[in-house]
Design brief:
It is built from two helices and four strands. By secondary structure, it is of the alpha+beta class. A four-stranded antiparallel beta sheet has the order 2-3-1-4. Strand 2 and strand 3 form a beta hairpin. The two termini are about 25 Å apart.
Length: about 100
């Protein structure tokens, strides 16, 4: 299933309380349960005035639908083409 990186512009995001994040999470989970299609929220990161999320969905439109129904901004939704990290340097290239 494709993974998407979602950028959400939320002024004051870094000042959201634990209770705020709990409520946002609960709303997101509620919307996911009602989508009637495969959808997985992987993780989210709060940085400054933005929240970055990684979700798995069948399409970007489904990600936008989740945002609309949850009342969340989805200012940029990009399909993740590949993932890499420090461990990638230790992998042997396959030809």
């Amino acid at each position: 299933m494709p993974r998407y990186l979602i950028e959400r512009n939320i002024p004051g995001a870094s000042k959201l309380t634990s209770e705020d994040l709990c409520n946002i999470s609960a709303k997101s989970n509620q919307v996911v349960a009602g989508l009637d299609r495969p959808y997985t929220w992987i993780t989210s990161y709060v940085a400054g005035d933005k929240i970055y999320c990684v979700h798995e969905a069948d399409s970007a439109e489904t990600v936008y639908r989740h945002a609309r129904e949850g009342g969340f901004p989805a200012d940029l939704v990009s399909e993740i083409a590949s993932e890499f990290g420090p461990q990638t340097a230790r992998q042997t290239a396959r030809v």
